[in-house]
């Protein structure tokens, strides 16, 4: 077993650096609910500037951001158009049904990225009393279920044009928006201009322990605050964790390119291991998916064997594994992980 566990399960495994911890310890705080926390206010202003939106609200998690956005945009029985791999469908415990009472109409976009034509085809007849009302289009950038694929700006602009022409709002799940911006060299506000609401996560590649910011118009955020209160997301001296988010934006945004390079190195190495299959060009950012092809082996078996030897991976399906690079994993760690995976498959 390795002397230090190399955790490639997710970029949520990052731990606050000493600099981030210092920023948290020294944060000036106040009552967030009374708008008296100066650090939370600094973060709000920073996010509005970054995304080009009128207002923003700091939340405990990205899942809460999605749930709040859907509740604000939709009414009971409305329909959300989203890719079949979307986080709001597969990884939020049925929250869209339980919290917002909405339907979801799935589209099947290549690598989680669907087109304007697919949105057009998915729209319901607005004059029908029988069909659910098309109300919202939700996109995920990057697409987790789509191998970490970045949405091309032109594709998103096309989707937005069709949706808005039909009277629908557009929402972006920005769990890894920073990765998309760094990989494509697209300013965050250019993506944000295509949507009515979006959120930015701090706990993945940016390396903070808690939090996400949801942004939109002033009216949208006013109602989002009400939903935040209703869902139990309101906090008090949250400047302590907002300070971590600010530190992440200052120090960990541009370095995401390093994670993308490490992921490419990992994908190339996995593709050369007998019994595994990885479509290297498909892995654009910091997510690496690969298939277990060795007879008699499953993804779970390989994950367990690697864990025993000090490497953490995640089984996505019976045969598919996901590995995620992040700031707590070095290039040397990737080489060690590849050695472990190769040894396991050769045994």
TrEMBL record:
Q: Does the keyword Lyase apply?
A: yes
PANTHER family of this UniProt entry?
Answer: L-THREONINE ALDOLASE, L-THREONINE ALDOLASE-RELATED
Domain of life the protein comes from: Bacteria
Q: Which residues carry this modification: N6-(pyridoxal phosphate)lysine?
A: 204
Q: Which cofactor does it need?
A: pyridoxal 5'-phosphate
Keywords assigned by UniProt, alphabetized? Lyase, Pyridoxal phosphate
Its source organism is Enhydrobacter aerosaccus
User: What protein name does the entry list?
Assistant: L-threonine aldolase
Name a single GO cellular component.
cytosol
Q: Name one GO biological process term.
A: L-threonine catabolic process
Q: What would you give as a GO molecular function for this chain, any one? A: L-allo-threonine aldolase activity
State whether it acts alone or in a complex, and with which partners, per the record: Homotetramer.
Q: Name one Pfam family in it.
A: Beta_elim_lyase
Q: Which NCBIfam families match?
A: GntG_guanitoxin
Q: Which residues form the Aromatic amino acid beta-eliminating lyase/threonine aldolase domain?
A: 7-291
Family, similarity comment: Belongs to the threonine aldolase family.
């Amino acid at each position: 077993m390795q002397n230090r566990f190399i955790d490639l399960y997710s970029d949520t495994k990052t731990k606050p650096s000493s600099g981030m911890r210092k920023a948290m310890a020294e944060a000036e705080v106040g009552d967030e609910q009374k708008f008296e926390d100066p650090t939370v206010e600094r973060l709000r202003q920073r996010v509005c500037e970054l995304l080009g939106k009128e207002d923003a609200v700091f939340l405990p998690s990205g899942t809460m951001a999605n749930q709040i956005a859907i509740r604000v945009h939709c009414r009971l029985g409305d329909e959300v158009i989203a890719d079949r791999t979307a986080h709001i469908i597969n990884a939020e415990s049925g929250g869209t049904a339980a919290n917002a009472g909405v339907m979801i109409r799935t589209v099947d976009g290549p690598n989680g990225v669907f087109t304007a034509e697919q949105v057009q085809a998915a729209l319901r007849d607005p004059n029908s009393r029988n069909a659910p009302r098309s109300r919202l289009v939700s996109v995920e950038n990057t697409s987790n279920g789509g191998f970490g694929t970045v949405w091309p700006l032109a594709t998103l602009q096309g989707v937005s044009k069709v949706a808005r022409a039909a009277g629908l709002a557009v929402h972006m799940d920005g769990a890894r928006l920073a990765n998309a911006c760094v990989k494509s060299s697209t300013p965050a506000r250019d993506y944000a201009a295509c949507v009515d609401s979006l959120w930015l996560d701090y706990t993945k590649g940016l390396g903070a322990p808690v939090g996400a910011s949801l942004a939109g118009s002033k009216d949208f955020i006013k109602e989002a605050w009400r939903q935040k209160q209703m869902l139990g997301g309101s906090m008090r001296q949250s400047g302590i964790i907002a300070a971590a988010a600010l530190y992440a934006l200052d120090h960990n945004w541009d370095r995401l390119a390093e994670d993308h390079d490490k992921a490419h190195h990992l994908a190339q190495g996995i593709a050369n291991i007998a019994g595994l299959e990885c479509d290297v060009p498909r892995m654009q950012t910091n997510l690496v998916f690969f298939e277990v092809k060795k007879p008699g082996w499953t993804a779970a078996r390989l994950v367990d064997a690697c864990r025993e030897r000090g490497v953490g991976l995640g089984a996505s399906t019976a045969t598919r594994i996901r590995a995620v690079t992040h700031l707590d994993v070095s290039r040397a760690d990737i080489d060690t992980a590849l050695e472990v995976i190769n040894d396991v498959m050769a045994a």
